[in-house]
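Why Ribonuclease 3? Reviewers of the renewal asked for a concrete example.
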Amino acid sequence: MKNLKELENRINITFKNKYLLENVFIHRSYLNEHKHFYLPSNEKMEFLGDSVLSLITSVYLFKKYPHLAEGDYTEIKSSIVRTESLAEAALSLDLSEYLYLSRGQARELGKKNKNILADCFEALIAAIFLDDSFEKAYNFVLRHLFTDKLAKIIENKLYLSPKSKLQEITQARFKVTPNYKVLEEKGPEHNRIFKVEVVIKGKIYETGIGKSKKEAEEEAARRTLVTLI
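Here is what the prediction returned.
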């Protein structure tokens, strides 16, 4: 395992409580093999970090993009704090090199597991918040998660779901909103499969399949966007 001092230098933050920083990297699987380890898992810190990150994102959007609607804020938050984005940020900081994992998780490439990496990044946000302040955690997130990425998402409206993007395009191009028609619904109640098609001004476009009507509609919208753009 790498020296955590390297990480402190990389993020330009020196922890007063070194145990807090170390706790960021204790995956629950490690404790299954080391039941008397002196630190708990990082799950509670990840829980706190998730809440702190949500507040940081809300404050930043409110200050930086006052012209956007509340619905836009929600969509943008979802796109920037999703697992993939957090995992990418974790990898850019080499957080995987500090993880305490079980031998099984290590064999199964746990250090590349997006969920584990995302949780680790959120735990690090919590550690910075607890060790210092909200402001320090805020600036950390701006540097290592928002830089370049968030501006690109907003400028190109990448935060919009396929359905939202399609509605925006069809209203501009055809002066109507798309309709979604359920073609098929099958399978047991706990495992339904839906097939949906997009209809715009009476013309049938693409179909989508999903485990919920919403999922099928999003897939149909995504495929229709490909034909329209």
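The chain is about 60% helix and 10% strand. This is the kind of structural detail the renewal will allow us to pursue systematically.
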